[in-house]
Amino acid sequence: MKRPQAVPTVQVDNERVIVTEWRFAPGAETGWHRHGHDYVVVPGTDGELLLETPDGEIRAQLVAGQAYARNVGVEHNVINNSPHEISFVEIEIR
Known about the structure:
Helix content: under 10%
Distance between the termini: 35 Å
CATH architecture: Sandwich
Number of helices: 0
Number of strands: 9
């Protein structure tokens, strides 16, 4: 099944950070990727993500304004598993 693509908008890209707003239509995905930096995610909306990982699928709840952090090396495909658009800001630390 072909999914729509999530839409990234880079807001800041300098020597210290990369700040990207991500918007996901229902069912949209990022595509498989591996994070090259530590990062923090700040959800703008509530919703559920489906994470396809090398170890299987994980469901994760987003809560607007409730940030979380991950370390470099995370590999996954992120899918909006909600019936509405979701968004978050991702802050990558160089």
